[in-house]
Amino acid sequence: MLPIIDKQTRLLVIAPHPDDETISAGGLLQQVRDAGGDIRIWLLTDGDNNPWPQRWLERRVWIGAEGRRRWGMRRRREVVGALRTLGLAPEQLEGFSWPDMGLTRQLKTDHEAMLDLLGARLRAWRPNTVVLPDLGDHHPDHGVAHVLLRLALAREGLAPCLLTYLVHGGALAGAGDVLALSPGQQATKREAMESHTSQTALSGARMRQLVERPEVFTVLPGHWAAQGRQLPWQPASWLHPWLRLTVADGSGVRSWRWGDAPMLEDEARPTLRPEACAGPGPRFAKLHMDIPSPWIFDVWGWCELA
Fold first, then answer.
1. Domain boundaries, given as residue ranges, for the chain
2. In the chain, is it the N or the C terminus that has fewer CB atoms within a 10 Å radius of its CB?
3. Is 292 exposed, middle or buried (0-12, 13-18, 19+ CB in 10 A)?
4. CATH 3.40.50.10320 corresponds to the domain 10-219
5. Sign of CA dihedral 96, 128, 251, 241
6. Full strand arrangement of the beta sheet holding 38-45
7. What are 169's strand-pairing partners?
8. pLDDT value of position 268
9. pTM of the model
């Protein structure tokens, strides 16, 4: 059941990229604003690694560091415009400028600094409701955003109501609660999406379709948790040389090649040894390949270990 929205609500919305705030929670933001609650939006990346729309609009093939910086600034202006349409002030947005399409890599190399920054912001803001990407979202930045926020909240000993949203991936059958929007709220959300002109120029139909979907939130604890230390994947043997397993919990981030991962033998499904799960929870595992690919979405993604 979704929490009551009133003037006591302190809402934090986690947006991995500009436009995620509008797609996932444009209606919720309006309702909390109208109830007199307080709102913050944390934008984790500037969405600067978004080459195809940039090539289309700028009529260029090669995009260097300066081009990406310029594109990120454009998308930051767009999100400010979208929030203004939703009735929010620029001061309610905080951008982290972490690497677009690189949050998983940064988690593996710089997780302490990332969690320290998130922890400091959480202590200062102390939200009672946090809206964050679902762990099962197929975009790698969305899945790791969930992991980062859960780890930071646990480290700080904070336990707000957690609502997850899914942007990339099929609808979750029977999962989640739908937030009812008035026709006016839906129209305002639709107008806010038009501020993201860099995204609607090339993929307007898809982006508008996303905005028209119901706002569905799952109240954690959710539906993605695995049982014990058992992993949900059984990858084909020919993939094993290229696969890596990463585990993140309160003790840090560890990564192994699939064949070197500390797993029990003679189990029906891959199962981690106890020593691989010795740190404090929550605990997450990700199966992935560190090989450049034009396919941006996760094949396996993250799971939560009970």
1. 10-219, 225-305
2. N
3. exposed
4. yes
5. negative
6. 93-98, 38-45, 10-15, 129-133, 161-165, 215-219, 177-179
7. none
8. 82
9. 0.95
